[in-house]
Amino acid sequence: MVKQTQIKQIQFSRTGGSEVLELVEVATPEPGAGEVRVANQAIGLNFIDIYFRTGLYPTAVMPSGLGTEGAGVVDAIGEGVTHLKVGDRVAYAQAPLGAYAEQHVMPAEKVVRLPDSIDFDTAAGCMLKGLTVQYLLRQTYPLKGGETILFHAAAGGVGSLACQWAKALGVRLIGTVSSAEKAEIAMRNGAWATIDYTREDVVERVRELTGGEMVDVVYDSVGKDTWLTSLDCLKKRGLMVSFGNASGPVEGVNLGILNQKGSLFATRPSLAGYADTRERFEAMAEELFDMLASGKLKVDVSQRFSLAEAGKAQDAVAGRQTTGSTILLP
Fold this sequence. Notes:
Structural class: alpha/beta
Number of strands: 15
Strand content: 25-35%
Helix content: 25-40%
Order of helices and strands: EEEHEEEEHEHEHEHEHEHEHHEHE
Radius of gyration: 20 Å
Distance between the termini: 20 Å
């Protein structure tokens, strides 16, 4: 077998719209000590990728690769790696930027073995999103069952998994959506109720649905545009979980507003803050894989694009033209 000396990778040399993304050829990366190289079979596309491309989240160097999630087969191992071997089926969600590529090198501690029962497309479509739902529902606010929660963008990649996981836990999830079609998707995935924010007053509908009690926790990946609405949906001493910036970051917050609206709690978590050791990461992945194996969680990979179509794929996600998960195929 002739060793591949170059690989195709998506890079960008300046921030901006999807037109800054370029498909280039680079030297095949070699793993160093404590690293592995994965031959990607499927690559996850997430909103955070767009934040890096636009400059909302700065990159360390330019030109830069893009993407942190994928699934494939280990094809090279660096010195000192003992928990993985060449030929292992694996998945990852927190790799250094550069997953939009045929092969990717990353710290071995950020890679987990993938059970044979889970295919590459499913893994790439759910690692980041599924682990996000795990820490949101099981750690940031450990749901016990019986709670009522509000989850924004309930028909998206994270939202679709959250609807299923909440139902499995016995939690009433109210999901916000932007169309009747997306409401149907959220309900099919296990949402207790939906609110179309394009034509309904979210706070009033939450009040009606909960008999005036409001919700225990709000999970908000939208950011700036929904911050105040989300706070107004919480019951006293409720928790506001702001975990994304789809409409822009929440800025200039006066902490006094949490007092005024009912002694509220607020947090801005991230996957890196929870999966911060190999042991915690593997435990979280194991719970995600168990949910998939049990059938309580099903991943809807609704869009597949070639690596060369990364810009087109990102535009579809940013334009809210997608449902479920979107992946790139190298």
